[in-house]
Amino acid sequence: MRFSYQYRLKPDKEQIAKMEKWLELLRCQYNYLLGQRFDWWETHRTAVNSCPLICHLPELSDRPTYFSQKQSLTQLKKDRPWYCQIQSQVLQDCVKRVDLAFQRWLRGDKSGKKSGKPRFKGKGRYRTILFPQVKANCVQDNQINLPKFGTVKFIKHRPIPDVFKIKTAQITRKADGYYLTLSLEDTNVPESTIDITPTSENTLGIDMGLKDFLVTSEGEKVEIPQFYRKGQERLKKLQQKVSRRHKGSKRYQKAVKQLGKHHQKVARQRKDFHFNTIKLILNQGDVIAHEKLNIKGLAKTRLSKSIYDAGWGNFLSRLAVKAENAGQLTIEVNPKNTSQNCSGCGKKVPKKLSERIHNCPHCGLSMDRDQNAARNIRNLAVGMNASSKAQLRTEAQAGAAEKPQPHHEVIGCG
Question: Probable transposase IS891/IS1136/IS1341 domain location, by residue (predicted)?
Fold first, then answer.
Protein backbone atom coordinates (compact mmCIF):
# COMPACT_ATOMS: atom_id res chain seq x y z
CA MET A 1 0.00 0.00 0.00
CA ARG A 2 1.33 3.43 -0.94
CA PHE A 3 0.06 6.95 -0.39
CA SER A 4 1.40 10.47 0.12
CA TYR A 5 1.36 13.06 2.89
CA GLN A 6 1.97 16.74 2.22
CA TYR A 7 3.35 19.20 4.79
CA ARG A 8 4.19 22.90 4.80
CA LEU A 9 7.95 23.51 4.75
CA LYS A 10 9.60 26.22 6.86
CA PRO A 11 13.11 26.65 5.36
CA ASP A 12 15.46 29.45 6.42
CA LYS A 13 16.81 32.12 4.03
CA GLU A 14 19.89 30.14 3.05
CA GLN A 15 17.83 27.04 2.27
CA ILE A 16 15.34 29.09 0.23
CA ALA A 17 18.19 30.57 -1.82
CA LYS A 18 19.59 27.08 -2.39
CA MET A 19 16.19 25.73 -3.49
CA GLU A 20 15.75 28.59 -5.94
CA LYS A 21 19.22 28.02 -7.39
CA TRP A 22 18.61 24.28 -7.77
CA LEU A 23 15.28 24.89 -9.51
CA GLU A 24 16.84 27.32 -11.96
CA LEU A 25 19.71 24.94 -12.79
CA LEU A 26 17.28 22.04 -13.22
CA ARG A 27 15.12 24.18 -15.49
CA CYS A 28 18.09 24.97 -17.75
CA GLN A 29 19.10 21.31 -17.88
CA TYR A 30 15.50 20.25 -18.63
CA ASN A 31 15.33 22.68 -21.58
CA TYR A 32 18.74 21.54 -22.87
CA LEU A 33 17.81 17.84 -22.79
CA LEU A 34 14.43 18.53 -24.37
CA GLY A 35 16.15 20.55 -27.10
CA GLN A 36 18.40 17.56 -27.84
CA ARG A 37 15.30 15.40 -28.33
CA PHE A 38 13.66 17.92 -30.66
CA ASP A 39 16.82 18.47 -32.72
CA TRP A 40 17.24 14.74 -33.37
CA TRP A 41 13.55 14.27 -34.10
CA GLU A 42 13.40 17.17 -36.56
CA THR A 43 16.43 15.95 -38.55
CA HIS A 44 15.70 12.21 -38.49
CA ARG A 45 11.94 11.90 -38.78
CA THR A 46 11.98 11.74 -42.61
CA ALA A 47 11.45 8.28 -44.02
CA VAL A 48 14.52 6.38 -45.23
CA ASN A 49 13.35 6.24 -48.87
CA SER A 50 12.61 9.98 -49.18
CA CYS A 51 14.58 13.20 -49.09
CA PRO A 52 13.40 16.38 -47.31
CA LEU A 53 13.01 19.36 -49.65
CA ILE A 54 13.69 22.02 -47.01
CA CYS A 55 17.12 20.87 -45.88
CA HIS A 56 20.01 18.62 -46.84
CA LEU A 57 20.36 15.09 -45.60
CA PRO A 58 21.81 15.25 -42.07
CA GLU A 59 24.64 13.18 -40.77
CA LEU A 60 23.36 10.19 -38.90
CA SER A 61 23.67 10.51 -35.13
CA ASP A 62 22.67 8.40 -32.19
CA ARG A 63 19.19 8.95 -30.90
CA PRO A 64 19.16 10.59 -27.44
CA THR A 65 17.50 8.21 -24.99
CA TYR A 66 16.94 8.14 -21.26
CA PHE A 67 20.14 6.16 -20.65
CA SER A 68 22.36 8.16 -23.02
CA GLN A 69 21.20 11.47 -21.52
CA LYS A 70 21.65 10.04 -18.06
CA GLN A 71 25.25 9.09 -18.88
CA SER A 72 25.91 12.62 -20.14
CA LEU A 73 25.44 14.00 -16.61
CA THR A 74 29.00 12.95 -15.74
CA GLN A 75 30.42 15.15 -18.50
CA LEU A 76 27.99 17.91 -17.55
CA LYS A 77 29.52 18.16 -14.07
CA LYS A 78 33.01 18.35 -15.58
CA ASP A 79 32.07 21.09 -18.05
CA ARG A 80 29.86 23.01 -15.61
CA PRO A 81 31.14 22.43 -12.06
CA TRP A 82 28.24 24.35 -10.51
CA TYR A 83 26.00 21.36 -11.26
CA CYS A 84 28.03 19.32 -8.75
CA GLN A 85 26.15 20.99 -5.90
CA ILE A 86 22.92 19.27 -7.03
CA GLN A 87 22.43 15.75 -5.74
CA SER A 88 22.97 13.14 -8.47
CA GLN A 89 19.58 11.44 -8.13
CA VAL A 90 17.80 14.81 -8.42
CA LEU A 91 19.57 15.41 -11.74
CA GLN A 92 18.65 11.93 -12.89
CA ASP A 93 15.01 12.64 -12.10
CA CYS A 94 15.22 15.66 -14.42
CA VAL A 95 16.27 13.32 -17.25
CA LYS A 96 13.39 11.00 -16.38
CA ARG A 97 10.89 13.85 -16.62
CA VAL A 98 12.15 14.81 -20.08
CA ASP A 99 11.89 11.20 -21.28
CA LEU A 100 8.39 10.79 -19.86
CA ALA A 101 7.10 14.02 -21.45
CA PHE A 102 8.62 13.15 -24.84
CA GLN A 103 7.38 9.56 -24.89
CA ARG A 104 3.83 10.56 -23.93
CA TRP A 105 3.80 12.96 -26.86
CA LEU A 106 5.04 10.43 -29.44
CA ARG A 107 3.71 7.10 -28.14
CA GLY A 108 1.18 7.88 -25.44
CA ASP A 109 0.67 6.25 -22.07
CA LYS A 110 -0.30 2.65 -21.28
CA SER A 111 -3.82 3.15 -22.64
CA GLY A 112 -2.50 4.78 -25.83
CA LYS A 113 -3.63 8.27 -24.83
CA LYS A 114 -1.19 10.92 -26.09
CA SER A 115 -0.30 14.21 -24.45
CA GLY A 116 0.49 17.54 -26.07
CA LYS A 117 3.91 18.52 -27.37
CA PRO A 118 6.22 19.26 -24.42
CA ARG A 119 7.22 22.89 -24.04
CA PHE A 120 10.37 24.55 -22.86
CA LYS A 121 9.99 25.82 -19.31
CA GLY A 122 10.24 29.56 -18.78
CA LYS A 123 11.76 31.19 -15.75
CA GLY A 124 9.99 30.02 -12.60
CA ARG A 125 8.17 27.17 -14.36
CA TYR A 126 10.26 24.34 -12.89
CA ARG A 127 8.82 23.89 -9.42
CA THR A 128 9.70 20.46 -8.00
CA ILE A 129 12.81 18.84 -6.53
CA LEU A 130 12.43 15.07 -6.13
CA PHE A 131 14.69 12.96 -3.91
CA PRO A 132 14.08 9.34 -5.08
CA GLN A 133 15.82 7.95 -1.96
CA VAL A 134 15.99 9.26 1.60
CA LYS A 135 17.22 7.78 4.85
CA ALA A 136 14.84 5.63 6.87
CA ASN A 137 15.11 7.89 9.93
CA CYS A 138 15.21 11.18 8.04
CA VAL A 139 12.18 12.58 9.93
CA GLN A 140 12.75 13.54 13.54
CA ASP A 141 9.86 15.36 15.26
CA ASN A 142 9.09 18.34 13.00
CA GLN A 143 12.35 18.24 11.00
CA ILE A 144 13.51 16.30 7.97
CA ASN A 145 17.10 15.62 6.88
CA LEU A 146 17.38 16.06 3.10
CA PRO A 147 20.55 15.36 1.05
CA LYS A 148 22.73 18.48 0.59
CA PHE A 149 20.15 20.58 2.46
CA GLY A 150 20.60 19.29 5.97
CA THR A 151 17.81 19.70 8.50
CA VAL A 152 14.71 21.52 7.26
CA LYS A 153 11.74 22.35 9.48
CA PHE A 154 8.16 21.57 8.46
CA ILE A 155 4.71 21.80 10.05
CA LYS A 156 3.85 18.24 11.09
CA HIS A 157 0.08 18.61 11.25
CA ARG A 158 -0.45 14.84 11.27
CA PRO A 159 1.84 12.02 12.40
CA ILE A 160 3.52 9.58 10.03
CA PRO A 161 2.45 5.95 10.72
CA ASP A 162 5.26 3.94 12.30
CA VAL A 163 4.82 0.90 10.05
CA PHE A 164 5.18 2.91 6.83
CA LYS A 165 8.54 3.63 5.23
CA ILE A 166 9.38 6.90 3.50
CA LYS A 167 10.21 6.05 -0.12
CA THR A 168 10.61 9.48 -1.71
CA ALA A 169 10.59 13.13 -0.65
CA GLN A 170 9.62 15.99 -2.92
CA ILE A 171 9.91 19.75 -2.46
CA THR A 172 7.28 21.75 -4.36
CA ARG A 173 7.22 25.51 -4.77
CA LYS A 174 3.71 26.96 -4.74
CA ALA A 175 2.31 30.47 -4.73
CA ASP A 176 2.30 30.72 -0.94
CA GLY A 177 5.57 28.93 -0.14
CA TYR A 178 7.27 25.52 -0.19
CA TYR A 179 5.69 22.15 0.54
CA LEU A 180 7.10 18.72 1.36
CA THR A 181 5.44 15.61 -0.09
CA LEU A 182 6.39 12.27 1.45
CA SER A 183 5.57 9.03 -0.37
CA LEU A 184 4.85 6.31 2.21
CA GLU A 185 4.74 2.57 1.60
CA ASP A 186 3.99 -0.54 3.64
CA THR A 187 4.46 -3.85 1.82
CA ASN A 188 2.71 -5.79 4.59
CA VAL A 189 -0.64 -4.18 3.83
CA PRO A 190 -2.29 -6.12 0.97
CA GLU A 191 -3.96 -4.38 -1.91
CA SER A 192 -7.69 -3.96 -1.42
CA THR A 193 -9.82 -6.62 -3.13
CA ILE A 194 -13.36 -5.30 -3.42
CA ASP A 195 -16.06 -7.93 -3.91
CA ILE A 196 -19.43 -6.16 -3.76
CA THR A 197 -22.49 -7.19 -5.75
CA PRO A 198 -24.44 -4.09 -6.91
CA THR A 199 -28.11 -4.27 -5.99
CA SER A 200 -30.92 -1.73 -5.90
CA GLU A 201 -30.51 -1.44 -2.12
CA ASN A 202 -26.75 -0.84 -1.84
CA THR A 203 -26.23 1.13 -5.09
CA LEU A 204 -26.50 4.91 -5.34
CA GLY A 205 -26.73 6.61 -8.72
CA ILE A 206 -25.50 10.17 -9.20
CA ASP A 207 -26.17 12.49 -12.13
CA MET A 208 -23.61 15.27 -12.67
CA GLY A 209 -24.91 18.62 -13.86
CA LEU A 210 -24.44 22.38 -14.02
CA LYS A 211 -27.77 23.48 -12.54
CA ASP A 212 -26.95 21.33 -9.50
CA PHE A 213 -23.51 19.82 -9.01
CA LEU A 214 -25.09 16.39 -8.63
CA VAL A 215 -28.43 14.76 -7.91
CA THR A 216 -28.65 11.32 -6.31
CA SER A 217 -31.13 8.59 -7.13
CA GLU A 218 -32.72 9.25 -3.72
CA GLY A 219 -33.55 12.82 -4.72
CA GLU A 220 -30.84 14.60 -2.71
CA LYS A 221 -29.27 17.60 -4.45
CA VAL A 222 -25.86 19.23 -3.97
CA GLU A 223 -25.69 22.85 -5.09
CA ILE A 224 -22.92 23.89 -7.45
CA PRO A 225 -20.60 26.44 -5.78
CA GLN A 226 -18.98 28.08 -8.88
CA PHE A 227 -15.90 29.30 -7.04
CA TYR A 228 -14.19 30.53 -10.23
CA ARG A 229 -17.14 32.64 -11.38
CA LYS A 230 -17.55 34.18 -7.95
CA GLY A 231 -13.90 35.24 -7.97
CA GLN A 232 -13.85 36.58 -11.53
CA GLU A 233 -14.00 40.27 -10.53
CA ARG A 234 -11.00 39.84 -8.24
CA LEU A 235 -9.22 37.86 -10.95
CA LYS A 236 -9.86 40.58 -13.52
CA LYS A 237 -8.28 43.27 -11.33
CA LEU A 238 -5.24 41.12 -10.57
CA GLN A 239 -4.69 40.32 -14.25
CA GLN A 240 -4.91 44.02 -15.10
CA LYS A 241 -2.34 44.76 -12.41
CA VAL A 242 0.06 42.19 -13.90
CA SER A 243 -0.35 43.54 -17.44
CA ARG A 244 0.41 47.12 -16.31
CA ARG A 245 3.66 46.21 -14.58
CA HIS A 246 7.03 46.21 -16.33
CA LYS A 247 7.90 42.58 -16.97
CA GLY A 248 10.75 41.38 -14.79
CA SER A 249 10.49 44.15 -12.21
CA LYS A 250 9.88 43.57 -8.50
CA ARG A 251 6.38 45.05 -8.74
CA TYR A 252 5.65 42.66 -11.63
CA GLN A 253 6.80 39.67 -9.58
CA LYS A 254 4.67 40.82 -6.65
CA ALA A 255 1.58 41.13 -8.87
CA VAL A 256 2.22 37.67 -10.37
CA LYS A 257 2.47 36.22 -6.87
CA GLN A 258 -0.88 37.77 -5.90
CA LEU A 259 -2.46 36.34 -9.04
CA GLY A 260 -1.06 32.89 -8.26
CA LYS A 261 -2.43 33.02 -4.73
CA HIS A 262 -5.89 33.81 -6.06
CA HIS A 263 -5.85 30.80 -8.41
CA GLN A 264 -4.55 28.65 -5.56
CA LYS A 265 -7.40 29.78 -3.31
CA VAL A 266 -10.02 28.86 -5.93
CA ALA A 267 -8.40 25.43 -6.47
CA ARG A 268 -8.33 24.74 -2.72
CA GLN A 269 -11.97 25.77 -2.32
CA ARG A 270 -12.98 23.40 -5.10
CA LYS A 271 -10.87 20.58 -3.64
CA ASP A 272 -12.40 21.00 -0.18
CA PHE A 273 -15.89 21.00 -1.69
CA HIS A 274 -15.14 17.81 -3.62
CA PHE A 275 -13.93 15.91 -0.55
CA ASN A 276 -16.91 17.03 1.55
CA THR A 277 -19.29 15.90 -1.20
CA ILE A 278 -17.48 12.56 -1.56
CA LYS A 279 -17.85 11.91 2.17
CA LEU A 280 -21.58 12.66 1.93
CA ILE A 281 -22.03 10.28 -1.01
CA LEU A 282 -20.01 7.37 0.36
CA ASN A 283 -22.13 7.37 3.52
CA GLN A 284 -25.24 6.60 1.44
CA GLY A 285 -24.23 3.52 -0.53
CA ASP A 286 -21.65 0.79 -0.92
CA VAL A 287 -21.65 1.13 -4.73
CA ILE A 288 -21.61 4.52 -6.46
CA ALA A 289 -22.70 4.59 -10.11
CA HIS A 290 -22.02 7.56 -12.38
CA GLU A 291 -21.87 8.38 -16.07
CA LYS A 292 -18.73 7.91 -18.13
CA LEU A 293 -18.43 11.53 -19.22
CA ASN A 294 -16.47 12.81 -22.20
CA ILE A 295 -15.35 15.95 -20.39
CA LYS A 296 -12.92 17.11 -23.10
CA GLY A 297 -15.68 16.88 -25.69
CA LEU A 298 -18.18 18.71 -23.51
CA ALA A 299 -15.62 21.42 -22.76
CA LYS A 300 -15.49 22.35 -26.44
CA THR A 301 -19.01 23.76 -26.21
CA ARG A 302 -20.09 27.17 -24.87
CA LEU A 303 -20.42 25.61 -21.42
CA SER A 304 -16.66 25.04 -21.13
CA LYS A 305 -16.08 27.59 -18.36
CA SER A 306 -18.87 26.14 -16.20
CA ILE A 307 -17.68 22.57 -16.78
CA TYR A 308 -14.09 23.34 -15.80
CA ASP A 309 -15.31 25.39 -12.84
CA ALA A 310 -17.27 22.37 -11.56
CA GLY A 311 -14.21 20.11 -11.88
CA TRP A 312 -16.05 16.93 -12.85
CA GLY A 313 -12.89 15.05 -13.83
CA ASN A 314 -11.08 15.73 -10.54
CA PHE A 315 -14.20 14.89 -8.58
CA LEU A 316 -14.75 11.50 -10.24
CA SER A 317 -11.08 10.49 -9.94
CA ARG A 318 -11.04 11.48 -6.25
CA LEU A 319 -14.30 9.61 -5.73
CA ALA A 320 -12.81 6.41 -7.17
CA VAL A 321 -9.73 6.64 -4.93
CA LYS A 322 -11.67 7.39 -1.75
CA ALA A 323 -14.19 4.64 -2.48
CA GLU A 324 -11.40 2.09 -2.96
CA ASN A 325 -9.74 3.14 0.30
CA ALA A 326 -13.07 2.74 2.08
CA GLY A 327 -13.68 -0.73 0.58
CA GLN A 328 -16.46 0.54 -1.68
CA LEU A 329 -16.98 0.43 -5.44
CA THR A 330 -17.55 2.94 -8.24
CA ILE A 331 -19.07 1.95 -11.59
CA GLU A 332 -19.10 3.90 -14.86
CA VAL A 333 -22.13 3.48 -17.13
CA ASN A 334 -22.92 4.59 -20.66
CA PRO A 335 -24.65 8.01 -20.47
CA LYS A 336 -26.71 7.41 -23.63
CA ASN A 337 -30.43 8.26 -23.05
CA THR A 338 -30.09 8.32 -19.24
CA SER A 339 -31.99 11.62 -19.18
CA GLN A 340 -34.53 10.55 -21.83
CA ASN A 341 -35.58 7.08 -20.69
CA CYS A 342 -38.11 6.60 -17.91
CA SER A 343 -36.69 5.00 -14.78
CA GLY A 344 -40.07 3.41 -14.04
CA CYS A 345 -41.02 1.64 -17.25
CA GLY A 346 -37.83 2.04 -19.29
CA LYS A 347 -39.51 3.62 -22.31
CA LYS A 348 -38.01 6.64 -24.03
CA VAL A 349 -39.63 9.98 -23.29
CA PRO A 350 -37.98 12.70 -25.44
CA LYS A 351 -37.65 16.09 -23.74
CA LYS A 352 -35.78 19.31 -24.37
CA LEU A 353 -32.99 20.59 -22.13
CA SER A 354 -35.30 23.35 -20.82
CA GLU A 355 -37.79 20.75 -19.52
CA ARG A 356 -36.68 20.03 -15.95
CA ILE A 357 -39.56 17.70 -14.95
CA HIS A 358 -39.86 14.15 -16.26
CA ASN A 359 -43.50 13.20 -17.01
CA CYS A 360 -43.92 9.71 -18.43
CA PRO A 361 -47.11 9.28 -20.53
CA HIS A 362 -46.75 5.48 -20.36
CA CYS A 363 -46.57 4.76 -16.61
CA GLY A 364 -47.46 8.19 -15.18
CA LEU A 365 -44.15 8.67 -13.33
CA SER A 366 -43.42 12.32 -12.55
CA MET A 367 -40.21 13.51 -10.90
CA ASP A 368 -37.23 15.79 -11.33
CA ARG A 369 -35.38 15.22 -14.58
CA ASP A 370 -31.99 14.79 -12.90
CA GLN A 371 -33.31 12.38 -10.27
CA ASN A 372 -34.83 10.27 -13.04
CA ALA A 373 -31.43 10.21 -14.78
CA ALA A 374 -29.72 9.21 -11.52
CA ARG A 375 -32.16 6.30 -11.14
CA ASN A 376 -31.44 5.20 -14.71
CA ILE A 377 -27.72 5.26 -13.92
CA ARG A 378 -28.32 3.11 -10.84
CA ASN A 379 -30.47 0.65 -12.83
CA LEU A 380 -27.80 0.38 -15.52
CA ALA A 381 -25.13 -0.40 -12.91
CA VAL A 382 -27.29 -3.15 -11.39
CA GLY A 383 -28.12 -4.49 -14.87
CA MET A 384 -24.42 -4.54 -15.85
CA ASN A 385 -23.71 -6.76 -12.87
CA ALA A 386 -26.54 -9.16 -13.75
CA SER A 387 -25.49 -9.38 -17.41
CA SER A 388 -21.83 -9.95 -16.50
CA LYS A 389 -22.85 -12.76 -14.15
CA ALA A 390 -24.98 -14.36 -16.88
CA GLN A 391 -22.11 -14.09 -19.35
CA LEU A 392 -19.69 -15.71 -16.93
CA ARG A 393 -22.20 -18.49 -16.27
CA THR A 394 -22.62 -19.08 -20.03
CA GLU A 395 -18.85 -19.18 -20.59
CA ALA A 396 -18.44 -21.60 -17.70
CA GLN A 397 -21.12 -23.90 -19.09
CA ALA A 398 -19.56 -23.77 -22.57
CA GLY A 399 -16.16 -24.56 -21.12
CA ALA A 400 -17.55 -27.49 -19.17
CA ALA A 401 -19.24 -28.86 -22.32
CA GLU A 402 -16.04 -28.65 -24.35
CA LYS A 403 -13.93 -30.23 -21.63
CA PRO A 404 -13.43 -33.99 -22.34
CA GLN A 405 -14.90 -36.37 -19.81
CA PRO A 406 -12.33 -38.34 -17.79
CA HIS A 407 -11.97 -42.05 -18.59
CA HIS A 408 -12.74 -44.36 -15.64
CA GLU A 409 -10.96 -47.70 -15.83
CA VAL A 410 -12.58 -50.64 -14.05
CA ILE A 411 -10.04 -52.80 -12.34
CA GLY A 412 -11.26 -56.26 -11.43
CA CYS A 413 -9.80 -58.59 -8.86
CA GLY A 414 -9.04 -61.88 -10.48
Answer: 196-300
> Residue 217 burial (CB < 10 Å; 0-12/13-18/19+)?
buried
What domains, with CATH codes, occur in the chain? 2-48+60-185 (no CATH), 203-394 (3.30.420)
Grouping H, G, I as helix, E, B as strand and the rest as coil, residue 153 is strand
Region of residue 390 (left: phi > 0; alpha: psi -120 to 50; beta: else): alpha
- Tell me what the pLDDT averaged over the chain comes to: 86
Residues 324 and 191: beta-carbon distance below 8 Å: no
Cα 310 off chain centre by = 16
CA-to-CA distance for 83 and 29, rounded, in angstroms? 10
Predicted confidence at residue 353, as pLDDT, reads 85
H-run or E-run covering 301: none
Per the CB < 8 A criterion, the answer to whether 368 and 339 are in contact is no
* Cα(196)–Cα(204) distance, integer angstroms: 13
Q: What is the pLDDT of residues 44-72, one digit of tens each?
A: 766 555 555 555 555 667 889 999 999 99
Q: How distant, in Å, are the alpha carbons of 98, 190, 328 from that of 193?
A: 35, 9, 10
pLDDT for residue 67: 94
Helices (H) and strands (E) in the chain, counts: 10, 14
User: Residues 9, 171: contact at Cβ < 8 Å?
Assistant: yes
Cα dist. 397→392, 401, 402 in Å? 9, 6, 9
**Cβ atoms < 10 Å from Cβ of 79:** 8
